[in-house]
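seq:
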Amino acid sequence: MIVGVLALQGDVPEQLRAVGRLGVKVRPVRGPPDLEGLAGLLMPGGESTTMSNLLDESELREPLSQRVRAGLPTLATCAGLILLSRTLAPSAGGRDPQPLGLLDVRVRRNDFGRQRESFEAPVRMEGLHGGPFPGVFIRSPRILDVGPAARAIAWRADEVVGAREGNVWGLTFHPELTDDARVHRAFLGMARTARVSR
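struct:
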């Protein structure tokens, strides 16, 4: 089993470590050939506009979209969620990227505030045992709407902070920045049993 980490920008080392510490082979994804043979893909947090531009420069946008549509298990966090979303509500800073439209949610970038307003909060996530997950929110997007093709899977108090559509998971927080491996372990468990069209 090989899991890829989109390695264009952002929390790439953290995601590589998060998967590697669970004993799974992990590969940085920088171009279309790196998608071959993957059992799962992680799209890290980072700067979504930069990542969107680099998807085009690396010619990854369409091959990645095709693989995810074919069922490739994908875990997207923060900026990764922004890129995967169906639509974006305009953000205060403007310059919103072109989303891939692969997860039926509407989100707004940086809706929890600037870097200095980052925070940690307990998150309740479907299927995770052992109490709340330590959610790390850094310039996080906000899920404004979960469409009919998706469903909520994570909550901070009553607010939705994670959604799933088929094999695609999108989270507004950063599980890769904690020592708690439960989210990655749950995702990898799903990836092991998923059926992917080639």
